[in-house]
Amino acid sequence: MNVETDKSTFDFNQFRTIRERSVGRLFWRLKRFTSAFVEPRLHALGYTDFKMSYLMFLANIEEGGLLIMN
């Protein structure tokens, strides 16, 4: 999206509107939702050692496993 504006002024409301629609911001909101809503429910179901941050790790496991190099 390319928005032309007057170079002498800056519309902060337009900036906030565009920023709120960004993909990264949506993922950030989803992460906050899962941390606040889903994780406590998983703990209540008995998965007390699971954290939503582990999903990043789990999503990157390939069919053949992982190769960890030190």
DSSP helix count? Answer: 3
Radius of gyration: 20 Å
Mean pLDDT comes to: 78
Major sheet description? none
Detail the poorly predicted runs.
Answer: none
Task: Please indicate the percent range of residues in DSSP E strands (runs of 2 or more).
Answer: under 5%
Please count the beta strands (DSSP E, at least 2 residues each).
0
Mass-distribution shape: elongated
Secondary-structure content class? mainly alpha
Helix content estimate? 40-55%
**SSE order, as H and E?**
HHH
Span of the ends, CA to CA: 43 Å
Characterization of this structure:
- The chain is mainly α and 70 residues long.
- The protein has a domain at 26-58.
- It contains three helices and no strands.
- It is elongated and about 55 Å long.
- The mean pLDDT is 78.
Summarize the structure.
This protein has a domain at 26-58.
Give the topology, please.
Blueprint: H1 12-20, H2 23-44, H3 54-59
Structure keywords:
70 residues; mainly alpha; 3 helices; 53% helix
